[in-house]
Amino acid sequence: MATEAVELDVFSGAPAAPPARPRVLLVGTIFAAGAASAAIIGMIALYTQMRADTIAGGDTWLPQEAVVPLTPGNMGMVTLLMSAVTAAWAVYALRNDDRSHALFALGLTELLGVAFIVNTAYLWQGMGLGIADSAQAELIYTITGAHVAMTGAGMLFLLVMGFQALGGQLTGRAAEGLHAATLFWFVTIAVYAVVWYTIYITK
Amino acid sequence: MTVTEAPRDVVETAAAETEPSTPTGLAALVGSGDPRAVGQLFVGTSLLFLLVSGVTGVLTGFEQVDTTKFEVVGSDSFLQLYTLHTISGLFLVVLPLLLGLATAVVPLQVGASTLAFPRLSAAGYWVYLVSGGLIVAAYAVNGGPFGGDSEGVALFLAAMVALLMALCAATLSVVTTVIALRAPGMSLRRTPLFSWSMLVGGSVWLLMLPVLAGMLALAYIDYTYGQRFLATGSGDIYPRLRWVFWPPTLFAAAIPALGIIGDIVPVFAQTRHRQHRAALFLIGLFGALSFGAWTQLGVSGAQLESLTPWLDSEVWTVVCTAAVVPLLGLLLLWTATLQAGRPKLFSPLVLAFPAGALLLGGVAAGAASAHTTLDLFDTTWTSGAAYAVLLGTLLAAFAGLVFWAPKLYGALVPEGVGQLVALLFSLGTLVVAVAYGIAGVLDQPTFTTPPDGLDDIDTIELLNLVAAIAGVIVVFAGLLFILGLLRAGLGRSRRRPVADDPWSGNTLEWATSSPPPVGNFAELPEITSEAPVYDARHRAARAQLGTEAAS
Fold first, then answer.
1. How far is A35 from chain B (nearest CA, A)?
2. Gap from A38 CA to chain B (nearest CA, Å)
3. What is the distance between the alpha carbons of residues B16 and A60, in angstroms, rounded to a whole number?
4. Chain B interface disruption, residue of A21, A25, A55, A142, most B CBs within 10 A
5. Residue B445's closest CA among B286, B542, B307?
């Protein structure tokens, strides 16, 4: 059935569409992720240097009463790695306009993020280190706390972009916002890998 | 189903009545995300903080004239005022001033309708304003480095972290604009030098300032909970952040100044920039060499006695020395550009020329301090080098403000003011830097009283007096510049409007009105080189000549 073209004068005075702003969010996220990483990596550099200085002076780095358990740290790493897969899945699903799977994958990513934060809080409780006990404790809590803050920011970013995507604003090829949030999430995981190796593995 | 419709005139009247009115006055200023408004706010506030930094600098300068006793501000306040002078000079004046200029000018230069994240820039400004005020307030209640009030010290640390985050937010918006919002045809190779220098400098700042913020966050937690890291309390704060005032980190503040000079020189030489791509490379190289976040490890040890373990490192010496090379290359390019054209000595060029010379001198002096055999490090030689770099950068920012005043304020800064400021500011800075440099050669330590037994104490005191008087001249020149800018900004309605392109500029910002409209451009010229407006002007001139010849 042929349709007749109708001129809608109601649109004739409408403003022009805003100019396309390609990659703005993605580029901004790359810089933001770099800055956030620099802050944490800078603190880790302080940590490793102070540890090296202390060990070179003939002392042990961690106080006798301190216990930095390996299992929760490993669990944190595994949890975040799983969340990397689900985040990538969300992007893939959204690019194919598969909204139900995108919703499921985003929900899983957020859930794994919450699990990671709970896991870190459990680790803090089990360490037997008060923040005011030693310089080492201050460093460990500052570094891991900063990373938890970065994780929270990543989850919020994913949540906002996820809602926009599922609301129909960022679907298919225009899913740049979710790409950006996922990129930030991947950087968060990469930074945790450094934290995990420095603080939990080599101690 | 029945559809009822109100008559069109009734609907339009009702719509007009319910349409929210456009905010004006303070409401418009507070709620604005317009790059020009945010840029103006950054510039205005940083110039106010310039007075704070300048006055404290003069006071501490006169305090050092008599090295045997504290008579001007007292021994308790001296160190606090000195740190307020240096910290506010870098973080509340130089960086925000450059960011303000970039916020207003970069979207115009790259042909964008606005910034990439205008609200982020606005948020950055307001956090900068509040945190800057809190930093000054912390000093006022005996806080800050060397302060005695523990809450004031903690307030200083927290406010510094907030300030650094605000500067990062505003920087993020500018660098993203350069990367993602360039007009069609403007490849990175065709990017104007100021925008390019903001991309390079902003990237370095985004990797460097968070490192300092992380260190200050750690200091805040330590100061609040245990004071193990800061063994002597607030007295340990400043020594641990001094790496930002040392080469090569300090050079990072000067990167945008190179772009400002690079954009001004060809316009007033009435030609193109010679070897534009080489200039891009040299600015990038200077930026890469000035990334000095790694030097924080020099002040991170548990024992402050080992403040600079990297001082003996050849890497540090090589990096600091190598930073002179791109600056020399740029100066050669600018000289070649001036020689190739017909220079007009208007105030932007008159301001830019000594700025470039001061930067070269400061960077070279900083490089010299990195050579341990010269034994200049941590003497006032380092302070002299830092003054040359930072005040040279400030002078370049003044040049930029005069150059782009038509776009920022829709008016020109009085020519006489620009020329007088150039003379007083550059001469004052030169005398301050040279006097402190010579005193450093005579072993005067930086920001503490000289130890007993120095042979040339009378000469050192005389040099300190000369530096203090020159400091007064620099502050006076700064005040004069602020008044000139105020006259341009506030008095524009009383004068005839400024031309859209009063300097016959080369880059895109001169293709729109002064001040630019909302959205910046009605239409953009074709971009086939780094100087599209220069191209368009000369194309039109050639076409006219051709027509005349034919007729």
1. 5
2. 6
3. 75
4. A142
5. B307
- For tokens 């910002």, name the residue: B509
Q: How many CA atoms lie within 13 A of B278 on its CB side?
A: 15
Q: CA of B179, closest CA in chain A: separation in Å? A: 7
**Residue B230, φ and ψ in degrees, nearest 5:** -95, 85
- Across the interface, of B172, B181, B226, the residue whose CB is closest to A31 is B172
- Interface touch A46/B297, C-beta < 8 Å: yes
Least confident of A91-95, B30-34, B301-305: B301-305
| Contact residues, chain A to chain B, C-beta under 8 Å | 19, 21-24, 27-28, 31-32, 34-36, 38-43, 45-46, 49-50, 53-54, 131-135, 138-139, 141-142, 146
* Model-level ipTM above the cut of 0.85: yes
Helices and strands per DSSP (H, E), number in chain A: 5, 0
Nearest to A36 among B176, B210, B222 (CB): B210
d(CA B33, CA B115): 9
Measure the CA–CA gap between A68 and B386, rounded to whole angstroms.
44
Non-local CB neighbours of A45 within 8 Å, separated by 6+ positions = B294, B296, B297, B300
Q: What is the pLDDT of residues A145-155, one digit of tens each?
A: 999 999 999 99
Helices B276-290 and B193-225 cross at an angle (nearest 10°) of 10
> CA torsion, points A80, A83, A88, A89, in degrees to nearest 10?
160
What are the contacts of A54-62 at 24+ separation with CB within 8 A? A54/B302, A61/A136, A61/A203, A62/A136, A62/A203
Q: What is the pLDDT of residue A46?
A: 86
Q: How many CB atoms lie within 10 A of CB B344?
A: 13
Chain-chain contact of B117 with A31 (C-beta, under 8 angstroms): no
Closest to B398 in 3D by CA, of B108, B110, B46, B91: B46
Phi, psi at B495, each rounded to 5°: -110, 170
3-class state of residue B445 by DSSP: strand
Q: Write phi, then psi, for A83 (nearest 5 degrees).
A: -65, -25
Q: What is the DSSP letter of B246?
A: S
Give the tens place of pLDDT for each residue, B110-136: 999 999 999 999 999 999 999 999 999
- Most confidently modeled of A18-22, A162-166, B456-460? B456-460
Amino acid at B339: Q
Angle separating helix axes B193-225 and B255-268, nearest 10 degrees: 160
User: By CB neighbour count within 10 A (0-12 exposed, 13-18 middle, 19+ buried), where does B19 fall?
Assistant: exposed
Q: Which of B211, B221, B225 sits opposite A38 (nearest CB)?
A: B211
Q: Which residues from B are below 8 Å from A24, CB to CB?
A: 116-117, 176, 180-181
pLDDT tens digits along B402-451: 999 999 998 899 999 999 999 999 999 999 999 999 999 988 888 766 66
Q: What is the pLDDT of residues A146-185, one digit of tens each?
A: 999 999 999 999 999 888 877 766 666 667 888 899 999 9
Alpha carbons B406 and B500: distance in angstroms, whole number: 8
Q: Which residues contact B476 (CB under 8 A, 6 or more apart)?
A: B424
DSSP string, B160-192: HHHHHHHHHHHHHHHHHHHHH-PPTT--GGGS-
Q: Are B350 and B300 in contact (CB under 8 A)?
A: no
So what's the pLDDT on residue B32?
A: 81
Host H or E run for residue A120 = helix A99-126
> What is chain A's alpha carbon radius of gyration, rounded to the nearest angstrom?
23
